[in-house]
Amino acid sequence: MKNSIKAGTFLVAFLVAPLLLASMVIDFRSFDHEGYTRVVLQSERSFTYKVQDQPGRLEVRIAGRADFPARSKAVPNSVLLERVTCEYQGNESVITVHFKGGAAIKKNFVLEDPFRVVFDLVRSELPAAVPPRTDGAVSADEKKPDPPKENPPAVPPRSDGRRGTGTPDVPVSQDREAVPPRSDEAVPPRPKPIETICIDPGHGGEDFGAIGRSKLKEKDVTLKIAFKLKKLIESKTGLRVIMTRDKDSEVSLNSRASIANNQLAQMFVSIHANSSFRKSAYGSETFFVSLQATDPEALELAQKENQNQENPGETIQNDELKMILWNMAQTEHIRESSKLAEFIQNELNELLGTRNRGVKQAPFRVLMRTAMPAVLIETVFISNAAEEKKLLSDEFLDKIASAIYNGISKFIYYYGSLVK
User: Fold this and answer.
1) Is residue 10 part of a domain?
2) Domain of 125?
3) How many CA atoms lie within 13 Å of 230's alpha carbon, on the beta-carbon side?
4) CATH number, residue 347
5) If pLDDT is split at 50, 70 and 90, which confidence band does 159 have?
6) What radius of gyration, in Å, describes the C-alpha atoms of the chain?
7) In degrees, to the nearest 5, what angle opens at C-alpha 182 toward C-alphas 181 and 184?
8) Domain count of the chain?
9) Which residues pair with 289 in a beta bridge?
10) What CA–CA distances, in Å, run from 184 to 42, 152, 181, 187, 198?
11) 338-355 per-position pLDDT tens digit
């Protein structure tokens, strides 16, 4: 009996030991936006961490042993970052991000699937960053903010990782309310750096979209590209990405815009595959919304995309269009949408080697109700036999997703200059 107990104990220890000794792989990425630098620590599983914001560096202490790419790694071409190092102190792994000058944490939050800890850093003119709390630093589990300070030199991260309202975040403790702005100074609302992007895979469900000669359906192509684009954005920038559909389901045009608006997205990208009665038509097009179409082909395409599967007889009144477009013009979304379309179209031309059909305007219903910069991309022509064959290749879909991502990335830099 005793021998069997010992054998059982040994077996449990044998099985558990590898779990205790297994290191946790953590990837480091950084991305320079206009006005701030984003740092992302990603792992295949969640971890508890503490933050210490020291002069000239950011220390992230992680419970357990982290398998980091290198003990010391330079961060080339970064505005704020010099290098990142990893060392082991007792039962902790200490990942240290070294700054080129003064810098401070503007925001810190956690994203899931995969698990990512994200820091937004801004340049600081102070000789030293805000000192850490005496009881350590914020952990992923507790996320208790620092006590409010009078006239804090840097905006600290929100304790709950939620989106703000467009004005600088203020620390909140459980027994004190947020520190109000001084009565003698105005705090005007400002646009926020882009944090959430909505990807809209066109069509779905009973709405097949265009169908190629080999019976390839537009709805399937757009969903594949959307997933690839989502993965690129999340892995390279750490931004939050939502999708209007993540399976073969039918979503109305109004609902697609509502999803983006309700989730407070700051960019809307609708993905489609083009089609034409002219089988020789080829190339990519990127649209932003306008009451007047660029040309008859653009108008015909918009009318086709605007068909309401739930109510095929429904039409859009010109008065409604004018009201929506006027409202968009007031918030400068049309100008921003034009720039986003331009960046994406240039990348499609360069990376895909397709004909430049240009940036165009048309009254697309799915774009009209979005309260953010919004574009509709007609990737290539599924009605063209040669381009349909390309759409059957995962490698080609990867190129399309990469081109769209590069355009989005350039727009993020541009948009950042507007929110300074």
Assistant:
1) no
2) 24-175
3) 21
4) 3.40.630.40
5) very low
6) 25
7) 130
8) 2
9) 362
10) 43, 17, 8, 10, 39
11) 999 999 999 999 887 776
